[in-house]
Amino acid sequence: MKISDEQLERKRLQAENTELATLAGGLAHEIRNPLSTIGMNLELLAEEMEGDESQRARRMLRRISSLQGECRNLEEILNAFLQFARAGELNLEEGNLNTILTDYVGFLQPQANSMEVELRPHLDTDLPIVMLDRSLMRQALVNLCRNAIEAMPHGGSIDLLTRTRGDQVVLEIIDTGKGMDENTRAQMFQAFFSTRSGGSGLGLPTVRRIVEAHHGQIVCDSEPGKGTRFTISLPVQGAPC
C-alpha cells in the first residue's frame, strides 16, 4: 500500500515531536533535581532563623523568601516548557468539544466568580464529533481563559461559542478585556514573548501547537480597549485535513 506524501509528512512531524518531548523531559529532570535541592535547603535555612528577631535575621529571611519565589518561578517556567514541548504528542479519540467545554466551565466558574467575570457558554447542540486529545485540548482552554481573565482585572465577561462551519467545528472565546495592539498580536504566538511580568511566554505558543497538531487553525482578532476574540477551527471526523 502506497503511503501518501501527507502521511509521510505527518509521520515525520510525529517523530520530531516525540524527539522534542524526550529531550525536554530529560532537560526538565536535570534542572528539577537541583532546583528541588535548593528549595529544600532554603526552607531549612528559614526554619533555623525562626524566633530570631535581630535585624540580620530579618534581612536573611527576606532574602530567603525572595529566592524561594524565584525557585517557584523557575518551576512554573519549567512546567510551561514541558507543556509546550509535549503539545504535539496526541492521544486522539472521538469526542465532542461541547463536553470538554462544559466540564471546564464548571471547573473555572469559582475563579471567574471571584474575579467578577461572567462565563457565557453558547453551545451548538448538534456539534459533530471530532478527533481530539482531551487533556491537551483542555490545556488549550486553560491557557486561553486564564489570559482572558487576566485581561479583565476589574471584571467583565467571556463568551464561549461552538458552531459548525462546513467540515469544521469552530470554537470562539471572546472576552471584554483590554485587548491587544498590532505589535502584540504579531508576536503573541512566538515562544517566550510575554507582556506580563513574570510570564513564561509559552501559553499561547502552546495553544497554537496543540491546535495545529489537531490539524486545526487558530486566529485572533483584537484591538486595544475592545477585547479579544480567539477562533479555533478543527476538522470534523472523516474530513480531509
Please characterize this protein's 3D structure.
With 241 residues, this protein is of the alpha+beta class. The protein folds into two domains: 5-86, Helix Hairpins; 93-235, Histidine kinase-like ATPase, C-terminal domain (Heat Shock Protein 90, 2-Layer Sandwich). It has six helices and seven strands. It has helices at 5-49, 55-86, 97-114, 134-150, 182-187, 203-213, and strands spanning 93-95, 117-122, 130-132, 156-165, 168-175, 217-222, 228-235. The chain has a five-stranded mixed β-sheet, with helices on one face. β6 and β7 (228-235) form a beta hairpin. α3 (97-114) packs parallel to α4. The two termini are 20 Å apart. The model has no long low-confidence stretch (mean pLDDT 84).
Quick recap of the structure?
With 241 residues, the chain is of the alpha+beta class.
- Compute the number of strand runs: 7
Integer average pLDDT: 84
Tell me the CATH superfamily of the largest domain: Histidine kinase-like ATPase, C-terminal domain
**CATH topology term of the largest domain:** Heat Shock Protein 90
Order of helices and strands: HHEHEEHEEHHEE
Instruction: Determine and state the CATH class of the largest domain.
Output: Alpha Beta
The total domain count is: 2
Overall outline? globular
* Helix content estimate: 40-55%
- CATH architecture assignment of the largest domain: 2-Layer Sandwich
* Low-confidence blocks of residues: none
The number of helical segments is: 6
Q: Could you tell me how far the N terminus lies from the C terminus, measured between alpha carbons in angstroms?
A: 20 Å
- Describe the biggest sheet? 5 strands, mixed
Structural category is alpha+beta
